TrEMBL record:
Belongs to the NAD(P)-dependent epimerase/dehydratase family. It is an enzyme of class 5 (isomerase). SUPFAM superfamilies: NAD(P)-binding Rossmann-fold domains. This is UDP-glucose 4-epimerase. One of its GO terms (molecular function) is UDP-glucose 4-epimerase activity. Pathway: Carbohydrate metabolism; galactose metabolism. It comes from Microbacterium pseudoresistens.
Length: 325
């Protein structure tokens, strides 16, 4: 028995793989390597190279590796870029999820943990987002993740009376940072931490996007959560599904208070010892002012908690990136 991790050669997915194997579970990776790296996959874990859009490949992988559940991390994850590439975003995130569910049904695989996003909420009109807060995504990316949640819900309803009813949960989070393994780091050209790290390594001034948001210091506020904590929550959800325990349809993996981009920049200076004042560029389309969520429900069911301070998150990410050369 094993768990298939789609996107398991990526930054988040490879941490999920490590958390699975660390919990004594068997992991199999499916990744098209469009952004993932083979070197991020542990040597004792099977890597199947291919796309989640390849229906035959997905089903064959499920069958050949006796998969009992899927942790679906693969997808196009850039909210700002999704505004310019909506069709690509929907193909990867909506059609990809539909194909995975179809292949799961054909292979009698009934457990799935879906990597969703706090982007499903858009710009909330409440100070602290809860699971039932109104969903008003402000980008094609956020819309695609919300549709993914609907697909899981509808397939669960459709299979409820079958021999293998779908059991599912969606984990919503926003800015995933840091590293829990020095050989793995965030390679995204669009995420804040790698943007800053690459600038510092190149001896240039980091750039942030917008300082006129409706927040106390003008920079947007997010839940910055450590990738190792996120990975552990995925494994806890997988275990809960596999054991048949009750599970919620969705959990917010939130910090409860959030951090602004300026606060992150201040931590970057403290941790790296490199003094700088970031340049300010224009806002990115689709970026809301503030998204901060409570993690109370996930704390109850998935042992979710913030195990790292902001300086620890920055330090682990910085050290992993520097060790890569």
């Amino acid at each position: 028995m094993s768990w298939l991790v789609t996107g398991g050669a990526g930054y988040i997915g490879s941490h999920v793989v490590r958390a699975l194997t660390g919990a004594g579970m068997t992991a199999v990776v499916l990744d098209d390597l469009s952004s993932g790296r083979p070197s991020f996959v542990p040597g004792d874990v099977t890597l199947v190279e291919g796309s989640i859009l390849d229906r035959e490949l997905v089903e064959r992988t499920l069958r050949e590796h006796a998969v009992t559940g899927v942790i679906h991390v693969a997808g196009f994850k850039y909210a700002g870029v999704s505004v310019q590439r909506p069709l690509h975003t929907y193909a990867q995130n909506v059609e990809g999820t539909r194909i995975i569910l179809e292949a799961m049904a054909a292979a009698d695989v009934s457990n799935i943990v879906f990597s969703s996003s706090a982007a499903v909420f858009g710009t909330p009109d409440v100070p602290l987002v809860e699971e039932d807060t109104a969903k008003r995504p402000s980008s094609p990316y956020g819309e695609s993740k919300l549709i993914g949640e609907w697909l899981l819900r509808d397939q669960a309803i459709a299979t409820a009376a079958s021999e293998h009813p779908l059991r599912h949960t969606s984990l919503r989070y926003f800015n995933v940072v840091g590293s829990a393994d020095p050989s793995v780091y965030d390679v995204s050209p669009h995420n804040l931490f790698p943007i800053v790290f690459e600038a510092l390594l190149a001896g240039t001034t980091p750039r942030i996007f917008g300082d006129d948001y409706d927040t106390p210091d003008g920079t947007n506020v997010r839940d910055y959560v450590h990738v190792g904590d996120i990975a552990l929550a995925h494994v806890a959800a997988a275990k809960r599904l596999e054991s048949g325990e009750p599970i919620e349809a969705a959990y917010n993996l939130g910090s409860g208070d959030g951090l602004s981009v300026k606060q992150i920049m201040d931590a970057m200076v403290r941790v790296t010892g490199i003094e700088f004042v970031p340049e300010v560029g224009p806002r990115r389309p689709g970026d809301p002012d503030r998204i901060v969520a409570t993690g109370a429900l996930a704390a109850r069911d998935l042992d979710w908690r913030m195990r790292h301070t902001v300086d620890e998150m920055v330090r682990s990410g910085w050290e992993a990136r520097r060790s890569a050369g």
